[in-house]
Amino acid sequence: MKKYVWILCLLGCIALTAQAENYRKRDVTNPCFVTATTSKIEIKKIIQTDEQTQVDAVLYGRPGEVAVISSNTCLRSGKQEFPLREAAHVSIDGKTVPERIPDSGKMDIILSFAPIPQGIHTVDFVEKDEGWTIYGVQLTGIEPYVYVPSFLQTRRFEQSRTLPQPQLKSGKAVINGYILGYNPSMELEVVFRHSDWLFYNEWGQTVRIRQDGSFHIETDLLLAGGAKLQINKAQLDMFLVPGEETTVYIHLPRLSMSASHLLKEKYGQQQKAWFDGSMANLNDELATWGYPLSMEEDPDFKFMASEQSADRFNEFVKGHYDRYERNLQDDKKVGEAYRQYVLLNLKMNELVVLGKKGAMPGIVKSPYFRYGYDYTTYLEYMERDKGQVVDLWEDVKKAREVYQNFVKEHRFSSDDKELMKTITQPEIQKYVKERAEALEAQAALAQSNKSFVIAELDKNVSGADILPSIISSYRGQAVLIDFWATWCGPCRKSMFAIRDLKKKLASKDIVYIYLTGPSSPEAEWKTAITDIKGVHYRLKKEQWDYLCQTYGIKAIPGYLVISYDGKLQDQYTGFPGTDVLMKDLLRASE
């Protein structure tokens, strides 16, 4: 019996030793991660032992740039930090003579951190001085877990068929999105961009992400076409249609890893988002197959192009496009609309890239060429190189001049009005006017935060169009609508209480709109509102009665709280108190 006990103890010791040995040396190559705020460094391998955690990484930069990393760099798990101890091929704080990044634009470095205890499966890589963070680095060698709703997992993937004809149609495109895998503790920079023919916004529109990872975007469009959503260093391409709504569910880790030098081959052609609504099949493909819409989006292209001589540059760019064209034509898994859209953008980009250094060597023959991101630059180069004013270029130039004059002067001059009449496309005229009205609303909002602003609602607006017309200019902001009258004592008393509320919420993006009807004499109303900061409307009787009846305002004061995505969130008859309104407005603005 003792013999068997001894054997069991021996086997137990061997098992414990094997387990210890297994932990003592554990490594994972090209670890997955959730998202990253930098593209300057990527982790190639993590080796864990009892003595240290070794991180083999790749540092990217300009050739000749010094390779330096901060001593404040650490691996982090919750509140626990594992500091950087030693480094090879990179200088810590520049205290040793730093090596320089070679001509390839990248170099391998080795970092040694304090050992990570067993049981920790995920860490963040944090370089505090430069602000580099790689969130959710997996120590297990598997993809980060993300909850994907079952209706998305079981949905059939379908190829796109044909692109719609590129017809002018001004309107708003709406995007409701959900970032799967998002955690509020992450630093997430989300920027939305689209190709605007009138005024290119290089910085884009910053998108606010709610605690649950949801977001809402509205944008004015003159034509269906491309848009980009940048999430940290990754990018999601979309195709939007004016007047249509799109819902998108984004797999954050897969999108992030598809932008990684080390992981893009694995994740570049995996589905990174799911779309519902307008052009869903094309958008699903844009979120899956990974072909770029611009050669300049590829960092490797930029680096290789910079190495070409002037004589060989044209040949290099054309060869790059030819390779993409062959691959797309041979790729049986992509849909026809996707193939048309990508090839159009790549061809136009090829010509524009060459046009930046000389004359464009050809033209775009696609019937969908208005969908190109480089459309207006292409038209400009066509006029410059071939003396041809092509397609809508003359109208676009006039519209830009009128719109940019309005941006400077905040009004249409008589010359601008005359120039507007010469624009041949009614939809372009309409688009300019709508954009100008939006700018006026923004200016009025800025002024309303300092004093009062009188706004007018067209007397012909009626019924269900009344409230949308009032709040349409304030999408993206929470709105408090106050129903009142000059003769209403409780109304004035509640306004006095709301003054303190405004001060407390001054840092929030909230619009205060005051509505009254014809029972408030116009002269008295104009006198009374001078002391009430906000946007003021005096409605005609039919408009006032419709809003009160439709939204249950049976007595005044009455209130509507509109969330930043334009939806009615709360409504009250009688003053509910500043505490209630504060909670409502905070919720409406998030």
UniProtKB/TrEMBL annotation:
Keyword vocabulary terms for this entry: Cytochrome c-type biogenesis, Disulfide bond, Redox-active center, Signal
Thioredoxin domain residues: 443-590
Compartments where located: Cell envelope
UniProt KW Acyltransferase keyword: no
Domain of life: Bacteria
Primary site of residence: other
Any matching Pfam family: Redoxin
InterPro entries, alphabetized: Redoxin (IPR013740), Thioredoxin-like_sf (IPR036249), Thioredoxin_CS (IPR017937), Thioredoxin_domain (IPR013766), Thioredoxin_ResA/DsbE_sf (IPR050553)
Protein name: TlpA family protein disulfide reductase
Taxonomy of the source species: Bacteria, Pseudomonadati, Bacteroidota, Bacteroidia, Bacteroidales
